[in-house]
């Protein structure tokens, strides 16, 4: 059976159930790289210049982890998911860049996704991808329809049950098949004791490939939960909610994944949470603009908002200190509102 490797980075958390369904319906086996480690990040960083953004360095580390474990590696070139709204440049040339900096990697299965073009172009791209496994166009079509349905079920599950991407992936298809991690001292995941009711609700907005990568995000979700916070994410909102919030704040989206930041930020800032944390990586131009828009919106609404920027040299201590200060600020704000007002 042909093995298709999917790096656990970048768009993995948005589309993995769809990709898995497509390839498995064509008779292939899907394997996923292990979670990001410091060694994987270092190996990916060694292949590119220092100015390359952190998520791309991590992605290349995942490709290297899959190099000897699969027959093909799937790396789509996603240009646009909606007409006239385009992705960041790192997604446009990802297959070509990977071939250039990792010449020894397995053959790359790439597909050009551009919804600004006609649907016919998209269908042709899907059929070209499917021909690596079958020459039957109807079999490719059935696989594509099943994949789209898997994606819709995935999105619906996250928004209706308030699940994270990781939780929804596990519930839909079980934990992904992972290639072995070639390092000693791996630790089993221990069952956590039952947690008391959360004392506050914090929304963390940002791209899934930052938030769900525990190395890049410095386990921000777990740290907030350990501090007694309930954590909400952009994936817990419906597409209509994200689009409506984006339209209220900026009128129209300019980048494909802008709703994950601007739309989710606007939605959560207008109520339902005690505070909002914006998470981004250093050097990302679109994210820096979007976070600035949200800072201004939070100031106008007098809502607690903190922007966290992470990069290769960010320390756990710095993240923990800022999270503790943010939570303390919210608690002080809450006590001040509850305190009785005295007349002079």
Architecture overview:
The structure is a single chain. The chain has 344 residues and is of the alpha/beta class. The protein folds into two domains: 3-173, no CATH class; 200-338, Rossmann fold. Helices cover 49% and strands 12% of the residues. It has 15 helices and ten strands. The chain has helices at residues 12-25, 38-45, 54-66, 89-92, 94-101, 119-130, 137-161, 165-173, 208-211, 214-217, 220-226, 239-250, 262-269, 285-301, 316-338, and strands at 3-6, 29-32, 72-74, 77-80, 108-109, 112-114, 200-205, 229-232, 275-281, 305-310. The strands form three sheets. A four-stranded parallel sheet has the order 2-1-3-5, with helices on one face. Helix 7 packs across helix 8 and helix 12 (239-250) packs across helix 13 (262-269). The radius of gyration is 21 Å and the shape is globular. The model is unreliable at 184-190 (pLDDT under 50).
């Amino acid at each position: 059976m042909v093995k298709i490797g999917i790096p656990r980075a970048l768009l993995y958390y948005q589309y993995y159930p769809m990709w898995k369904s497509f390839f498995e319906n064509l008779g292939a086996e899907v394997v996923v790289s292990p979670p990001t480690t410091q060694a994987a990040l270092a190996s990916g960083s060694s292949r590119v210049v220092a100015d390359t953004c952190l998520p791309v360095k991590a992605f290349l580390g995942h490709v290297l982890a899959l190099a000897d474990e699969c027959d093909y590696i799937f790396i789509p070139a996603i240009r646009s998911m909606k007409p006239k709204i385009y992705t960041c440049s790192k997604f446009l040339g990802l297959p070509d860049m990977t071939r250039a900096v990792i010449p020894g990697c397995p053959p790359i299965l790439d597909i050009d996704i551009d919804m600004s073009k006609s649907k016919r172009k998209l269908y042709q791209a899907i059929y070209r991808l499917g021909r690596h496994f079958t020459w039957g166009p109807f079999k490719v079509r059935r696989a594509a329809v099943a994949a789209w349905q898997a994606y819709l079920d995935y999105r619906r599950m996250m928004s209706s049950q308030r699940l994270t991407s990781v939780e929804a992936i596990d519930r839909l298809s079980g934990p992904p098949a992972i290639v072995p991690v070639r390092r000693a001292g791996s630790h089993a995941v221990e069952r956590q004791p039952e947690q008391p009711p959360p004392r506050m609700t914090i929304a963390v907005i940002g791209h899934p490939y930052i938030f769900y990568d525990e190395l890049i995000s410095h386990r921000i979700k777990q740290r907030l939960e350990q501090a007694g916070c309930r954590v909400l994410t952009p994936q817990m909102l419906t597409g209509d909610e994200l689009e409506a919030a984006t339209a209220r704040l900026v009128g129209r989206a300019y980048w494909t994944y802008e709703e994950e930041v601007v739309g989710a930020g606007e939605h959560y800032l207008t109520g339902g949470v005690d505070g909002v944390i914006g998470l981004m990586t250093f050097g990302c131009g679109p994210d820096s603009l979007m976070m600035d828009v949200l800072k201004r919106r939070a100031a106008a609404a007098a809502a607690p908002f903190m922007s966290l920027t992470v990069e290769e040299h960010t320390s756990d201590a710095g993240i923990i200190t800022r999270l503790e200060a943010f939570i303390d600020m919210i608690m002080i704000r809450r006590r001040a509102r509850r305190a009785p007002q005295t007349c002079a």
